[in-house]
Specification:
This protein has helices at 5-9, 11-23, 32-44, 104-120, 141-147, 150-153, 207-225, 263-283, 303-317, 335-341, 380-397, and strands at residues 49-51, 58-63, 71-77, 127-133, 158-166, 173-174, 178-181, 184-192, 196-197, 232-241, 247-248, 251-260, 287-296, 299-301, 322-323, 344-352. The protein is of the alpha/beta class and 399 residues long. It has two domains: 5-181 and 298-397, Zn peptidases (Aminopeptidase, 3-Layer(aba) Sandwich), CATH 3.40.630; 184-296, Alpha-Beta Plaits (2-Layer Sandwich), CATH 3.30.70.360. The strands form four sheets. The chain has an eight-stranded mixed beta sheet, with helices on both faces. A four-stranded antiparallel beta sheet has the order 10-12-8-13, with helices on one face. It has a two-stranded antiparallel sheet with strand order 7-14. Helix 2 packs antiparallel against helix 4 (104-120), helix 7 (207-225) packs antiparallel against helix 8 (263-283) and helix 9 (303-317) crosses helix 11 (380-397).
């Protein structure tokens, strides 16, 4: 392992920043304190800062002393989740109902660690943009930063992202060309029938029966319409109807999620869902209002940038710490919006199984979006060194 020695020497200071961020989590587009902290540290290291993209986004502009050259972007997310922390260690959340349960505090800290090193070693040509993004957790902060001019104000030839990954051995990296994470989409079906007495169903039109049959029919999209080699998930996660034992209601509501690794598969699923919804409900005398919301596109790594990341990882931590046999995740990530605009790559950094957690952690597993999660601070020198080496190597190779 060839980590950057200065980063390792003061990584405990970056860990202290991480724990402070963990103790004061902020939700999407509310990351005011976090953004203030990030901007303050960047400015302390003489890195000019631009604020306000995506409401609370921060961009550090780090120019080398070697003159003009290409530009590369490194992105970390800053927001927390609306959930209660179960941990009781000293840096647990001070904000009820808010928690850094996905490691964005660690992502921010690792990029700050790289920023400090790069600010002290500016003998490169070109520009490194340090992108601290709000609102990854379901609100599309990356999309909002792009709408506000991220890539127009700060043109770059490549952009890179990273996420910690529990269950992978701590300090290992996972990278794939192509699909790394799925698209995230939601649907809502509002089925209208005709209410009646439960003992006299012939006088009504039962939306519950329509919902039951439709739930079965929707699963045939995956089993009979989609190519068997194309991963697709259609999950109905909510069905709401009725208010009394002896009343057939007027309406039934169904909600759920669709995940795909390609836009083509998503187009097919949405089309078939609409057709099946209308036809199945009509067959039972009901009408349906179908709403489909495409939230995050699939996270698709560009092959050239994925190969570059793999090379950087091997040189940094050794080939034995690089995993290219991982399977992509049906989770979603709004870094996908950035990859639609600029070539780049998104990698996973193993967070371990939770043995790193301090005494006082919750009883649950150290998994993402779990109340017992905590970021593994031993990753800070690894992740920060990865960011620094990736940026420097990329600028050197693309001079």
């Amino acid at each position: 392992m060839k980590l950057f020695e200065p980063i390792s020497a003061w990584s405990h200071e970056i860990a202290a920043i991480r724990r402070d961020l963990h103790a004061y989590p902020e939700l999407a587009f509310e990351e005011t304190r976090t953004a203030d902290q990030v901007a303050s540290w960047l400015e302390k290291w003489d890195i000019p800062v631009h604020r306000g993209l995506g409401v609370t986004g921060v961009v550090g502009i780090l120019k080398g002393t070697g003159g003009d050259g290409p530009a590369v972007g490194l992105r970390a997310d800053m927001d927390a989740l609306p959930m209660q922390e179960l941990n009781e260690f000293d840096h647990k959340s001070r904000h009820e109902g808010k928690m850094h349960a996905c490691g964005h505090d660690g992502h921010t800290a690792m990029l700050l660690g790289a920023a400090r090193y790069l600010a002290e070693h500016r003998n490169f040509a070109g520009t490194i943009y340090l992108i601290f993004q709000p609102a990854e957790e379901g609100f599309g902060g990356a999309r909002e930063m792009i709408k506000d001019g991220l890539f127009k104000l700060f043109p770059m030839q490549a952009v890179f992202g990273l996420h910690n990954w529990p269950g992978m051995p701590a300090g290992t990296f996972g990278v794939l060309p192509g699909a790394m994470m799925a698209s995230s989409n939601t649907f809502e079906l509002r089925i209208e029938g005709k209410g009646a007495h439960g003992g006299m169903p012939h006088l009504g039109v039962d939306p519950i029966m329509a919902a039951v049959q439709l739930a079965q029919n929707l699963q045939t999209i995956v089993s009979r319409n989609v190519d068997p080699l194309e991963p697709v998930v259609v999950s109905i996660t909510q069905i709401h109807a009725g208010s009394a034992d002896n009343v057939i209601p007027n309406e039934a509501l169904m909600r759920g999620t669709v995940r795909t690794f390609s836009t083509e598969a998503l187009d097919l699923v949405e089309t078939r869902m609409r057709e099946l919804s209308e036809q199945s409900c009509a067959a039972l005398g009901c009408t349906v209002d179908f709403d489909f919301d495409r939230r995050y596109p699939p996270t698709i790594n560009h092959p050239e940038q994925a190969a570059f990341c793999a090379q950087v990882i091997q040189e940094l931590v050794g080939a034995d710490k690089l995993r290219q046999d991982i399977r992509p995740s049906m989770g979603a990530e709004d870094f996908s919006f950035m990859l639609q605009e600029v070539p780049g790559c998104y990698v996973w950094l193993g967070n371990g199984d939770g043995d790193h957690r301090s005494q006082g952690h919750g009883l649950g597993p150290c998994m993402l979006h779990n109340g017992s999660y905590d970021f593994n601070d031993s990753l800070i020198p690894i992740g920060a060194s990865y960011w620094a080496k990736l940026a420097l190597d990329w600028l050197t190779q693309h001079r």
